[in-house]
Give the backbone structure.
Amino acid sequence: MESMQRWTLKWAHGEATAQSLGGMLAPVQFDLGGGRTVSPLYVAPWGDDVRWPGLLRALRGEWPCLPFGTVAAPAGLPPGFETRNATDTWIHGYGANHMWRLVEKAAHRLTLRVDYPPEGEIESLERTIEVAPDAPALIVSLTVHTRKDVVLPFALHPTFAIPDEGIEVLACPHQAIHSYPVPPEPGVSRALPNQTFASLKELATATGLMDVTRLPLSENTEELLQIAGCRPPFVLRYSAQQADVLLDWNPDELPDALLWISNGGRTYAPWSGRNFALGVEPAQSFFDLGRVVVPPADHPLAGRTGLAFRAGMPRTISYRLSARPV
């Protein structure tokens, strides 16, 4: 079992820690002045537990997923959906489940790298986390090196903490909201599957409309939604801390935001009914199913097949996480 390493950046406006597993970023504390702080990124309630495999061992915060998504198609897909086999067994990709090494640590910057197995299309990922010296903000970039030309589903995986006092999901201007093709957690998830909605305030369920703009929800559930045409920044309001937290990225590369609403609905270990988190995942993918499901050609998200990578031509994806007082 490889030992975990963690590295911390400190600056006038905060503190940020990255770990070797998955290159995951968390915890992060932003200082807003006047003694006010906000720590927006999630850390799984079980902490670092070597009993759990891969990314589950120390799940937290934000990390890149390449290729993004699950490796087994769900049961009960609607007519017209086709299934296929994933080319590996790593949920959210090899890099999410293995240790990254430190390439450089400077006063305001960390660079981490993970090498992929030699037989695959991806050669390596390099990730730089840099502080904005004059603001409570982090600029993160991911450079992808591939051995072959390939199109792969890709997403970033920022996961936000939901404190007991709650958060408000101000979200982003968007085109439409799509629900998962099947209930993400059978018997638990509430949004009607394979539907299109206009607003996060009015998701259709079997018992009426559900508003997911204020979390936590009163009823336990697990939801996966894809916000198509999300125009960043995506904004969360931590009212108790009088802070807005903003996630910004290039929508020309990553046109949508997947929402993972974990609201105590997974009763099995390690979640054990105690997991409350919000994933806001900028993506070029069909939900987290791009590796194992092909939607019908007339599905609104049928064109979300992934990002194109060219052999010998590194591609860099950058994004920003910040906070501001309200």
